[in-house]
Amino acid sequence: MNRRDWFRLGAIGLKGLIGLVLAVPGAAYLLSPLRKRREDTTDFRRLARLGDLEIGRPRSFSIVDEQRDAWVTYPATPIGTVWLVRQPEGAEQPVLALSAECPHLACKIKLAGDGNGFVCPCHASNFTLDGSRVKAISPRGMDTLEVAPIDPNDPNAEVRVKFQRFRTGTEEKIPLA
Ligand code: FES
């Protein structure tokens, strides 16, 4: 190989290197919204501090989130509601989290007038404070949501809940993707 060939070979190598340097961040950028979206769906959300909740008195919390498709992020809007019920001292889990979305047809479940249970206004399904069915057309009880571990002795402990949706109209609790 003469000097000219070496020069050509060097130029080709350099072009390849520049292409690689440009391609790596480009690919990362293109994939990142999809990756971020997957991470978001497994997030626990901080809804309250333990001291904000009274034993046996449910409180509702809106879940607000940014909507996004693959590339565009839209302003934050309410996407659901969660009922938090603080449990009596000594309970295995200090706080119970229940989705307010009715398992029948997804109407919003409210607190009953006497505060001792829940009711779905659409077809009058009734639930106890632990989400079990009483008189209900709903095929299953209210959907429980995962709560991150809480120190029951710390009133400042954060109550963090994994918000999820489940299929409606089925006896089985099936998470939506
Ligand atoms: S949507 Fe709740 S009972 Fe029908």
Tell me the strand percentage band: 25-35%
Work out the radius of gyration.
25 Å
Biggest sheet overview: 6 strands, antiparallel
CATH architecture of the largest domain: 3-layer Sandwich
State the total count of DSSP E strands. Answer: 9
Percentage of residues in helical conformation: 10-25%
CATH superfamily of the largest domain: Rieske [2Fe-2S] iron-sulphur domain
- Write the CATH fold name of the largest domain: Rieske Iron-sulfur Protein
Question: Helical stretch count?
Answer: 1
Query: Span between N and C termini?
Result: 59 Å
N-to-C series of helices and strands: HEEEEEEEEE
- Principal-axis shape equals elongated
The CATH C-level name of the largest domain is: Mainly Beta
Task: Write a concise synopsis of the structure shown.
This protein has one helix at 3-40; strands at 44-49, 59-68, 73-86, 95-99, 110-111, 118-120, 125-127, 144-147, 158-162.
Describe the protein in words:
InterPro entries: Rieske_2Fe-2S, Rieske_2Fe-2S_sf. The chain contains one helix and nine strands; from the N terminus they run H-E-E-E-E-E-E-E-E-E. By secondary structure, it is α+β, with helices and mostly antiparallel strands. The strands form two sheets. It has a six-stranded antiparallel beta sheet with strand order 1-9-8-4-3-2, with no helix packed on it. The longest helix is centred in the first third of the chain and has 38 residues, at 3-40. It starts with a helix and ends in a 15-residue tail after the last strand. Bound molecules: FE2/S2 (inorganic) cluster.
